[in-house]
Amino acid sequence: MKKETRQEEIIRIAARLFKEKGYSAVTMRDLAAEMGIKAASLYNHINSKQYILDMIIITLAEKFTDGMQQIQSSDDNCIGKLKQIIELHVKLSSQNIYGMASLNNDWMHLAEKRDYYKKLRSNYEEDFRSILEEGIASGEIVNEKPEVMMFSILTTLRSLYIWIPKKEDLNLRELSATLNQILIKGINK
Amino acid sequence: MKKETRQEEIIRIAARLFKEKGYSAVTMRDLAAEMGIKAASLYNHINSKQYILDMIIITLAEKFTDGMQQIQSSDDNCIGKLKQIIELHVKLSSQNIYGMASLNNDWMHLAEKRDYYKKLRSNYEEDFRSILEEGIASGEIVNEKPEVMMFSILTTLRSLYIWIPKKEDLNLRELSATLNQILIKGINK
DNA sequence: GTCTATATTTTGATAGAC
DNA sequence: GTCTATCAAAATATAGAC
Q: CB of residue A48 closer than 7 A to nucleic acid strand D?
């Protein structure tokens, strides 16, 4: 296990504060106080507040992109790929609870990297949609609008970070399985 | 149709800006520019920036509370009540797209009214959970953890505001019906 | 790597003229 | 109801000493 650099520590603490109040409401003084140093000292490790947000969001967005590419290249059927997507979100969300908050709520405060992020996100959604369309074509899933299905599943998965920390008793494998039941098979008996 | 007061107009425009950048990142100068006046003039109609956020969030949260109370007092079964909840969210979200963003993302910036909001929200979730528990007990819905089911359905419904404006072609009755299929009956064939 | 001191902008908000 | 002028506080960030 590689030792955490001071910059990484700053970014980690910042992500936690960003989750609580949002990027704009967290000041460099807040962050410094949480680190036990003065605000000016932060700039020995990072160039700007913007840089911190860039790192949190882009690093995480690229992990989702990598995960989706692996899923796409697997030879699972539609339902199997959806299961893999659920597992990907449970895994990345549980590993990056704080980063997920920035990814969902503060991406609009990206500057130069904003378009790049939006491109990653739209590619991800396009891949997701095409999995659903294949499933409809092959008769694996119901013939409802793929856009609404994707929206429903994806917003649930993207909001996992709000909810995972409250449920430490629930292990992640069990959570994936329960979500698979609810999101795919429905709650109707 | 009662004419909109100047204060109501300010709150309406503010909600739109808050959706785009979040409460903290929107300045009174931004808001004034959007109204076509100077920042100082805003204070002839509202006491503070905080007051605007209070009005947006609390007004909307109370509408959800009222709606849930009506649903609870109906004699529908569990599935019927869930259908009503979906319709409530589709209706209120489509009528208050911008306000829903503040409700979801900026409630932590409430001050005195923050505890009141949190109470309304936890009461709402408690009512939701009890509907699911009744449905499990009566055998109407599957015996999965009610907490996970509620989380899954409610995060989807709470995120409708992100997605409704993009889908103006889809009418609201149809959207409710599709969500009912997907959230209740699942997407599995 | 952290500090103090400080520059520069921007913020929410008020006073008073029209 | 809106304006100009302004205040006081808070923001990001830099310079230079230790």
A: yes
According to the model, what pLDDT value does residue B186 have?
86
Residue A44 C-alpha, separation from nearest chain B C-alpha, in angstroms: 26
Mean pLDDT, chain A, integer: 96
pLDDT of the residue at A168: 66
Do residues B186 and A188 touch, judged by C-beta distance below 8 A?
yes
CA distance A7 to chain B (A): 25
Determine the distance between A37 (CA) and D14 (C1') in angstroms.
Answer: 17
Torsion of CA B101, B102, B108, B109, to 10 degrees: 140
The DSSP output letter for B45 is T
CA distance A39 to B37: 36
Average pLDDT of adjacent 10-residue blocks, chain B of 189 residues: 94 98 98 98 98 98 98 97 98 97 98 98 98 96 94 97 79 94 89
Please give the residue of chain B at the shortest CA–CA distance from A158. B155
* Domain boundaries B49-185, corresponding CATH code: 1.10.357.10
- Section A41-55 average pLDDT: 98
Does A79 sit within 8 Å of B182, measured CB to CB?
A: no
Q: Is the CB of B39 under 7 A from strand C?
A: yes
CA distance B130 to B83: 15
